[in-house]
Amino acid sequence: MKKYICTVCDYIYDPALGDPDSGIEAGTAFEDIPEDWECPDCGVTKEDFEPFEED
Ligand SMILES: [Fe+2]
């Protein structure tokens, strides 16, 4: 599964970790996060995230 990065604050969503503080279980793909989820660091929505390319 792909990581996604917040284009506002550079928070990286890692599907292996999820976002348990917001009720997103580890192993949840970014695509499967509810649309009303907010970046845990800056509060923007999924629209402000883009795929994070790792080398
Ligand atoms: Fe953010």
Q: Which features would summarize this protein structure in a list?
A:
about 55 residues, mainly beta, Rubrerythrin, domain 2, 3 strands, about 0% helix, binds fe (ii) ion
Helix fraction by DSSP (H/I, runs of at least 4): under 10%
Q: Please tell me the total number of domains.
A: 1
Q: Count all strands and give the number.
A: 3
Major beta sheet, strand line-up: 2-1-3
Question: Which structural class should the secondary elements be placed in?
Answer: mainly beta
Termini separation (Å)? 15 Å
* Uncertain runs: none
Share of residues in strands: 5-15%
Order of helices and strands: EEE
The name CATH uses for the topology is Rubrerythrin, domain 2
CATH architecture group name: Single Sheet
What is the typical, i.e. mean, pLDDT?
A: 97
Query: What is the overall silhouette?
Result: globular
Radius of gyration based on Cα positions: 10 Å
Ligand identities: fe (ii) ion
Q: What composes the largest sheet? A: 3 strands, antiparallel
CATH domain class name: Mainly Beta
- Secondary structure tally, helices: 0
What features would you describe in this structure?
The chain has a single domain, classed as Rubrerythrin, domain 2 (Single Sheet), CATH 2.20.28.10. Helices cover about 0% and strands about 15% of the residues. It contains no helices and 3 strands. It has strands at about 5, 10-15, 50. A 3-stranded antiparallel beta sheet has the order 2-1-3, with no helix packed on it. Strand 1 (about 5) and strand 2 (about 10-15) form a beta hairpin. It is globular. It starts with a strand and ends with a strand. The model has no long low-confidence stretch (mean pLDDT about 95). Fe (ii) ion binds next to loops.
